[in-house]
Amino acid sequence: MYNAERWLRECLESVLAQTWMRLEVILVDDGSTDGSFGICKEYARRDRRVKVLHGPNRGVSKARQRAIESAQGSFIAFVDADDVVLPDMFETLYKGFSVTDNVLVTNAGLYRLDRKGRLRKMSRHRHPRHYVIRDVPGYAAASLSGETNHYLCTKLFRREVFDWVHFHNLRHDEDTLLGYELVKALRGSSWKIVDLPSLLYCYRDTPGSLCTSETQAQAPERLANLDRMYEDALANWPELCPLIDAQRLSSLTYFLTRCRHIPAWKKQWWPLYRPRLDAYPLRLGLRLLRGKQRRRFLRLKMIG
Q: What is the distance in angstroms between the CA of the first residue and the CA of the last residue of the chain?
């Protein structure tokens, strides 16, 4: 956590109230300047399952990697400090490993916790009514197309995953890049990813949340990550290229649309990123995008 004092107690109470009691709860205070570290120490005194790590602010990727290196368990899950989890989240995710053989990751759906504390279903994510068992190529395609969510915090991983992939030193969008590197490392294996018919994670829709906030650096970093993925897929997994390219174009059109309404962003980023959109032929853009994303693309093309 970083300066999560306002929400941290509610988050920790939801984690410690899990129906699956055999938890090791590692709290990484990433250089907070508010009362977050004091709250962490308080909970460590109250519950022997809690362990606290403290250090300078280096970002969420470094914090997560540090926690993994400290963890003793056979399974790993992540929770952001301003979010909450439903009481049976970890037990339900764990039971998902018995659905079939060779399950590597189980994945749940998520709610949005609005500013009045109400749970709202995430309408932009499709959610299965039954267990969906995917092989690695199937999961890669489903994640990139939006058929399943790519968030780390909705998943339970076998610990071995983090012997094969490691977090990069990124401030934003590390979920996408880590997920791609995982499926690339396991392509051709017999491992399975299971989507559960349960909504278990609740991300808080607040200004400053890692999921909902956007800074000047966030969109360029996401586009750079997608560029890296595209170039790698072009050489190693060309079947994924159209799906990654659709993600690139969608992110680009969203970012340029934001730039039009924020003068400082437009001055800095428009000259750099508008030529990228111009390089997409109209027919290709219409083939890659759907719905609101397609309409954004058309509007941007029309203004020249």
A: 43
DSSP helix/strand/coil, 113: strand
- Residue with tokens 């094969």, as numbered in its chain: 164
Torsion of CA 241, 212, 83, 128, to 10 degrees: -40
Mean pLDDT of 143-148: 90
Go through 191-227 and write b for each residue having 16 or more CB atoms within 10 A of its CB, e for each that does not. bbbbbbebbbbbbbebeeebbeeeeeebbbbbbebbe
CA nearest neighbour of 40 among 51, 56, 24, 48: 51
The pLDDT tens digits of the residues spanning 18-39 come to 999 999 999 999 999 999 999 9
31, 58 Cβ separation under 8 angstroms? yes
Whole-number pLDDT of residue 217: 66
Cβ partners under 8 Å of residue 122, min gap 6:
109, 110, 111, 112, 149
Nearest to 241 by CA among 231, 251, 250, 249: 231
What would the pLDDT profile of 249-297 be if each residue is shown by its tens digit? 999 999 999 999 899 989 999 999 999 999 999 999 999 999 999 999 9
